[in-house]
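Researcher: Last one for today. Full complex below.
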Amino acid sequence: MEPAVTARNLFHAYGDGPHRKTILHDVNIEVRPGELTLVTGPSGSGKTTLLTLIGALRAVQEGSLRVAGEELNGATPEVQTRVRRQVGYVFQNNNLLPFLSARENVLMALNLLPAPPPLEERRARAAEVLAAVGLADHVDDYPATLSGGEKQRVAIARALAHRPRLVLADEPTAALDKQNGHECVKLMREVARAQGCPILIVTHDPRIQDIADRILRIDDGHILEGS
Amino acid sequence: MAVAFQLAWRQLRHEPRKLAAGIAGVVFSVVLMFMQIGFRDALFVCAAGIQSHLAGDLFLILRQSDNVGLVFMSRFSRRRVQQALAVPEVQSATELYVDVAQWKNPWTARTRGILVLGIDPAVGALELPGVREHLDTIRLKDAVLFDARSRREYGPVAATFKARGPVTVEINSRRTQVEGLFQLGGSFATDGNLITSDLNFLRLFPNRTAADVKVGILRLKPGADRRRAQAAVARLMPPDVEVMTRDEFVKQEHDYWDKATPIGFIFNTAMIIAFLVGIVVVHQILYAEISTHLAQYATLKAMGYTHGFMLGIVAGASLILGLLGFLPGWFLSLGLYHLTASATGLPMMLGAGKTTIVLLLTMFMCLLSGALAMQRLRAANPADMF
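Model: Here's the assembly. Have a good evening.
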């Protein structure tokens, strides 16, 4: 089976001329199904750039990057959108739509399925995923009435509900206390494992390193493979 | 698209106070537009009040080098009017004399211009309530009919007449009797009207002669083809006499006030201002709405929602604001039309035509504000989210 992510000789730089700064140097990685990979490294090391490239949120400049079976170097906006729909995102802030209930926020991901099942099935699926992250009692609550940890769990449910080929998370625990943060990442891993979906987490947080299958360290744009 | 529309509605409803402010802005602009368009229409109807009530099918006037209103038109020879009888379709021909006289208010002794219309009492070419039954009255020497809807600056003539009968007034320094009332109403050109016979007209304006007329009024035989008759009369006339149908005659008066005076410009400017006020208010609301939800929109884009979907949300929100503002605005305007009509006597009518125009303008206004606010969406860049 093809890895969810394959990067070959990936370079990326910002700026032009004398101010040009290379941020990724010859990155070669593979992310295999079911793996939870942590990407760590100091600020400015290029880990966030790598994540936005993999998420098809930024255009690839040089090298090859295959995500969910599509080559992203030279990808058209249509290909980018197709890839984005097969990726689940968890951001540092939950970014839930405040005017929709938890279930409706999760539905926003389910609505984008290539062949969306009937609304009743989608609503049931949303409730099921919310229950899996421990929010069975808050399915129809609005974000304003949920705690920070609960909101982040809704965001995790939203990222996983449509059974993505890959989950990308950026500092998902930064806004949470230690216990909540740990629990969130554990939940993410459980649900993702059940779906055979790999997870890539960019983090500074040393408290969650123990749950990783694999740790990639980036320093100054170079990948130093960890344990 | 339905999903985008639904999201737009949920988003607006989520903050009822902002929604109310947006709706209030649209209502204000809708009412302003309705009032402007209503005043403009009512005043134009009044301006062509005389033309609309002349009892005829074709009208002769001196061809004007520039479009002018009835009051300012030059006169032409009465012979031309009688000449038109040579056309077989023409049944009768009569003249209308028009001029402004000085009316001295008998209560205050102040003078004020008043429009005097002279007609042949044997024909009675004006179809106005009160005129037909007084045709014999104006045959009397120095007898006039007074427009009961003239402005009150002319004095309480109508009330006095109803209470005590004929009122003696001085018009162009000539003692004259008001012997009856009719209903017409003022316009841009005049605040009040009098009707009298052609003979009395010449008594009031001694330096005019019966040979100089302002309008020739032709009545056609029943079943005659109006266009053919118009062409036939035109062939008979020298090039300086113009033959018009009633619609053309009314339109000429409209066009004069609309285009040759600042009046059209003033109303158009007010319409544009009302439109701009709406754009500013709706744009404010939508722009703030987008700014507040920028991170969420960027998240939706990262999830695979297209830029077009985001545009759909903004367009949906602007259409919702437009519709929610238009309905109360329409009802409010209906009330204001009634108030204005009863306070000023202007024929303010809120029909399907005006409703359609203002509805279209409102929706266009909201979509334009939405289009402007969409610029803000470009800032919703999902690459900045991580």
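Chain A has a mean pLDDT of 89. Chain A touches chain B at residues 48, 51-52, 55, 57-58, 81-82, 84-85, 89, 91-93, 95-100, 108-109, 111-112, 170, 202 (CB under 8 Å).
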